[in-house]
Amino acid sequence: MTAAEDIGLADLATQPEVAEVIRTLARVARELSRRIARGPLERHGATVGENSDGDSQKALDLIADRAVFAALQGAPVRWYASEERDEVVPLTPGAPLALAIDPLDGSSNIDVNMSIGTIFSILPAQDDPLASFLRPGREQLAAGYVIYGPQTALVLTLGRGTALWVLDPETGRFEPAGPLAIPQRSNEFAINVSNYRHWAPPVRAYIDDCLAGETGPRDKNFNMRWVASLVAETHRIITRGGIFLYPADARRGYDHGRLRHVYECAPIALLVEQAGGAATDGCDPILDLVPQALHERTPLVFGTPVKVHRVAAYHDLPHEEVAALFGQRGLFRQ
Ligand SMILES: O=P(O)(O)OC[C@H]1O[C@](O)(COP(=O)(O)O)[C@@H](O)[C@@H]1O
Ligand SMILES: [Mg+2]
Ligand SMILES: [Mg+2]
Q1: What does UniProt give as GO cellular component (predicted)?
Q2: Mean pLDDT for each consecutive 10-residue tract of the chain (334 residues)?
Q3: What is the rounded distance in angstroms from the CA atom of residue 251 to the CA atom of residue 171?
Q4: At 128, is the secondary structure helix, strand, or coil?
Q5: 104 annotated to a ligand binding site
Q6: Contact present, 65 and 57 (Cβ < 8 Å)
Q7: Is there a cis peptide before residue 40, judged by omega within 30 degrees of 0?
Q8: From the alpha carbon of 104, which atom of ligand 1 is closest?
Q9: Domain spanning 3-179, CATH class
Q10: Cβ neighbours of 74 (radius 10 Å)
């Protein structure tokens, strides 16, 4: 069985519009991959403005957004929602699909030649532009990301498994490289620990117990990774397991974390669930949540299911347990 059949890509024959949008995005990704490789990275990574959320916009953020928007002219996409645009933009009147996109993810990594990406979510279009996007992530028809790293690769789900496609720079084709399944055991966690003092007690307690290693309630040592690129983090975790956390914290503007629900959390959650992982806001599955605004942020915890469920359990602990020194956190002593 080919990867295409494994993840239901064979079904694309019955969803020709979704297939057309994915092919268009793959073509844009191929071109972006070339532009990134060519550089100069200092220019691609230069700050050129600010988006509606107050995030700085790099030159490549806008190049990627404009490239996707231009390529979608005439495509079966009625509504276009991008991290780089304040509002939903109409594309093809009456077309059946809505596309949400983070055209360039991990933009703080552009100038240092680290992995960056593009994240996308395809939904059925409704007459109301916002209503097309403000719905549970389970209603996505397809979700994916492209990672621009040592290899450029596409990771895609149509809701029946998740699979990998690797760009061959010689032929310019994305070649199928098989279905992906998140390993069920791992000792890696990913979180921006510089925010430790801003976290809520359950998140601190979870990370305290990881840091305590074999001297703490978990009785084993952990390793930490933080690339500051959601796509790169997702790719590592889908490949070799682990857990990612971008929780809410006490900084101004971070009361729902940093990551945007519609075009970051929801597509990553579908990809992760379809690869056998779990994705929550710390407690509840991301795919069951209904965002209230286009650029809404949601805390995101995803990865190997047993780890993600453990984080939820820390949120359920009585206050005295969370506040206890890790050595005495009896519930988690194995
Ligand atoms: O710099 P921080 O706070 O660690 O945040 C890193 C996170 O921000 C992001 O870069 C946000 O995405 P954008 O680059 O698309 O704004 C994520 O990819 C990453 O996980
Ligand atoms: Mg992003
Ligand atoms: Mg971005």
Answers
A1: cytosol
A2: 48 81 95 92 87 83 96 97 96 98 95 96 98 98 97 95 94 92 95 97 95 94 97 98 98 97 98 98 97 97 97 84 59 52
A3: 47
A4: coil
A5: yes
A6: no
A7: yes
A8: 15
A9: alpha beta
A10: 11
- Separation CA 51–CA 86 (nearest Å): 7
Most informative mutation of 229, 236, 265 for ligand 1 (most atoms within 8 A of CB):
229
Diameter of the chain measured on Cα atoms: 62
CB 212 within 8 A of CB 268: no
CATH of domain 188-332: 3.40.190.80
Buried b (16+ CB within 10 A) or exposed e, 214-246: eebbbeeebeeeebebbbbbbbbbbeebbbbbb
Q: Strand (E) positions, 125-191? A: 142-148, 152-157, 162-168, 173-179, 188-190
CA gap 112, 142 in Å, rounded: 31
Question: What backbone torsions phi and psi does residue 186 show, to the nearest 5 degrees?
Answer: -170, 155
pLDDT, residue 91, reads 98
Backbone angles phi and psi of 208, in degrees to 5: -55, -45
106 marked ligand binding residue: yes
Give residue ranges with CB within 6 A of ligand 1: 55, 83, 102, 105-108, 192, 228-230, 246, 258
Are 3-179 and 188-332 the same fold in CATH?
A: no
Buried/exposed 160-183: b ≥16 CB within 10 Å, e otherwise = ebbbbbbbeeeeeebebeebbebe
Nearest to 328 by CA among 222, 215, 221, 220: 215
Domain boundaries, the chain: 3-179, 188-332
Which pLDDT does position 119 carry in this prediction? 98
Residues 6 or more apart whose CB falls under 8 angstroms from that of 90 comprise 78, 79, 80, 129
Instruction: Write down the H helix ranges in the chain.
Output: 3-6, 16-38, 41-44, 59-71, 129-133, 201-211, 230-240, 266-274, 305-316, 319-323
